[in-house]
Amino acid sequence: MLPRLCRRNRLDWKILSAVALICIIGYLFINYDKLKFSGNSEKLNFRQKRFFDYQASEASRSGHGEKGTAVLLQDEEKKLADSLFEKEAFNIIASDKIALDRSVVDVRDLRCKSITYPKDLPTASVIVIFHNEAWSPLLRTAHSVVNRSPPQYLHEVILLDDFSDRPELGEKLRKYVAETWPDQIVKIVRTKERSGLIRARLAGAKAATGDVLIFLDSHCEANTGWLEPLLARIKEDRTAVLCPEIDLIDKNTLQYGGTGSYSVGGFWWSLHFSWRPIPEHEQKRRKSSVDPIRLEPLLARIADDRTSVLCPIVDAIDANTLEYSRNSGYNVGGFSWSLHFTWRDVPDEDKKSRKYTDPVRSPTMAGGLFAASREFFFEIGAYDDGMDVWGGENLEISFRTWMCGGKLEFIPCSRVGHIFRSSHPYTFPGNKDTHGINSMRLAEVWMDEYKRLFYFHRRDLLGQDYGDISERKSLRQKLNCKSFKWFLDNVYPEKFIPDENVHAWGMVRNPASNLCLDTLQKDEKTIFDIGLFSCQNGASANEVFSLSLNDELRREEGCMGFSGSDGTRIPLEPCNNSSRQKWKHDKDSGTITHTASGMCLDKADEMSNGFVVAKKCNGKDSQKWTFEHYLDL
Ligand code: LR7
Ligand code: MN
């Protein structure tokens, strides 16, 4: 009995030890990567090496799309790309041909490269949200961040999967991430249901533990040196919410192109985002924007130098009309050997020196690419988690940042490319107009009485259910945020308000015909002729015109300009304060007169096919107009 038992026990021990050994080996095997990086310094060394190896290899890379070049497809590939274009809203075949860690051109201004940033910068959590993003752009985003962020500042990259159901974004993605980044710098977090991009970003922000949150869309490429200027600015001012300069990655060729336009964000009263040039007040505020242009070789550069001789930029005053027009050419002087003075283009080097490195204040952001101190992001209310799928959150966070004590800036030295796709390659559950409803929430909470201007455009939304906004309202109260009027007056003073500080506004009616000026639904980012349509009695934003204190007959961005020849149509063109765009209205006689030419706005005859024209004044009914509202200013 006894020996048998012993024997059996011995066997048990053997089995047990074997199992234990297998377990230990298994554990070591599974956790090899973790154990390999058990110390922080080992992790950092590994990351440093990866970072420097990539930098070293970048210049010598060759292949499709390297250095950010275009991929041009032919024959079968082109056909295939075309057939998939609708689904992906960009050229997936071209993207798939490009290395996931391709090189790009460093499009920064030369001056950016000479800036040295403090060594002890805060750390960043980069959050890339995605729903059913295609494989190659998603991973190219992650690679670009890891490869171009100095490891000591990159705390983590969170790929926030908003409940995607493409098969390759499941196990295959997990495996790729684990194998490619064994140090676990890249993490995947998945939502439990389709959350929409706003709640997805919130989930990402909650999971993040770095000092600074940086959000990116899932089809971006971070460029050289993108991270340091963002972190340095937040270190300097924790209330600054920052956008990189967003470069265009072409949706057809995947070419990485520098924008170089240095635009800032604005908005339409329909609550769509718009790009606009840096306004004059901001150009003046920024120190480096007043740099003189060197007039070499005739004149030496000045600044605070008593030995320098300065010229203003010479604008043109037309000899015939005395119209003053801005010289946007910024020429410098040269000479010919016959010793005549000549104008010539600003030499390349000086053009570059006019591109600046300072932050540019912006009223709004596009939404997808921005950085904020993690603490500050939550302090000012993160996001409105009542917003669904897509749209509106970009203006909400913009208005809120400014109104509640922060500031919004573009950082010219931080460059990130983004594929601007032609449509949304994902579903909108329930087919809801999420931009409309989200915008209602933002208008109701943040825009005070100015929400009326949104509803001008979206009468259809009036009375629709936008959910509960009480938490957001009490947030605004708790933070003691300023009014929307304060925002307009101080942050966006150039924003045109159609029904304030104008002589008159509303429908411009020709009583005899009961026709009104009308944009005929044309896209106001283009130039088009103003038409006539039966008056809609306030039901159509297409018929809202204003007579500004500046004597313009205008819309939000466009002014009616007239060339002066009898009987021609009148285009709506970008307002530029020129005499083409000045009109006077006489309330008693009803005339609207083009000041420079003396011609009258005329309903015209059937020949004009529903377009308004200007003609010699004749006192007839076709030249009589009334505005819906007169402010008597
Ligand atoms: O349900 C969704 N869940 C998601 O996670 C829907 C989308 N998403 C992800 C999506 O995979 C993508 O990574 O959210 C991100 C943004 O969606 P896009 O790329 O379809 O949006 P967009 O680039 O057309 O739109 C811009 O405006 C949006 C308004 O809600 C967001 O703020 C986007 O981030 C924003 N993109 C940019 O600002 C990039 C610069 C372009 C400009 C102008
Ligand atoms: Mn996008």
TrEMBL record:
<keyword id="KW-0812">Transmembrane</keyword>
<protein>
    <recommendedName>
        <fullName>Polypeptide N-acetylgalactosaminyltransferase</fullName>
        <ecNumber>2.4.1.-</ecNumber>
    </recommendedName>
</protein>
<comment type="similarity">
    <text>Belongs to the glycosyltransferase 2 family. GalNAc-T subfamily.</text>
</comment>
<dbReference type="InterPro" id="IPR045885">
    <property type="entry name" value="GalNAc-T"/>
</dbReference>
<keyword id="KW-0430">Lectin</keyword>
<dbReference type="InterPro" id="IPR000772">
    <property type="entry name" value="Ricin_B_lectin"/>
</dbReference>
<keyword id="KW-0472">Membrane</keyword>
<keyword id="KW-0735">Signal-anchor</keyword>
<dbReference type="InterPro" id="IPR027791">
    <property type="entry name" value="Galactosyl_T_C"/>
</dbReference>
<dbReference type="GO" id="GO:0000139">
    <property type="term" value="C:Golgi membrane"/>
</dbReference>
<dbReference type="GO" id="GO:0006493">
    <property type="term" value="P:protein O-linked glycosylation"/>
</dbReference>
<dbReference type="Pfam" id="PF00535">
    <property type="entry name" value="Glycos_transf_2"/>
</dbReference>
<dbReference type="Pfam" id="PF00652">
    <property type="entry name" value="Ricin_B_lectin"/>
</dbReference>
<dbReference type="InterPro" id="IPR001173">
    <property type="entry name" value="Glyco_trans_2-like"/>
</dbReference>
<keyword id="KW-0328">Glycosyltransferase</keyword>
<keyword id="KW-0808">Transferase</keyword>
<feature type="transmembrane region" description="Helical">
    <location>
        <begin position="12"/>
        <end position="30"/>
    </location>
</feature>
<comment type="pathway">
    <text>Protein modification; protein glycosylation.</text>
</comment>
<keyword id="KW-1133">Transmembrane helix</keyword>
<keyword id="KW-0464">Manganese</keyword>
<keyword id="KW-0333">Golgi apparatus</keyword>
<dbReference type="Pfam" id="PF02709">
    <property type="entry name" value="Glyco_transf_7C"/>
</dbReference>
<dbReference type="GO" id="GO:0030246">
    <property type="term" value="F:carbohydrate binding"/>
</dbReference>
<dbReference type="InterPro" id="IPR035992">
    <property type="entry name" value="Ricin_B-like_lectins"/>
</dbReference>
<feature type="domain" description="Ricin B lectin">
    <location>
        <begin position="502"/>
        <end position="628"/>
    </location>
</feature>
<dbReference type="InterPro" id="IPR029044">
    <property type="entry name" value="Nucleotide-diphossugar_trans"/>
</dbReference>
<dbReference type="GO" id="GO:0004653">
    <property type="term" value="F:polypeptide N-acetylgalactosaminyltransferase activity"/>
</dbReference>
<keyword id="KW-1015">Disulfide bond</keyword>
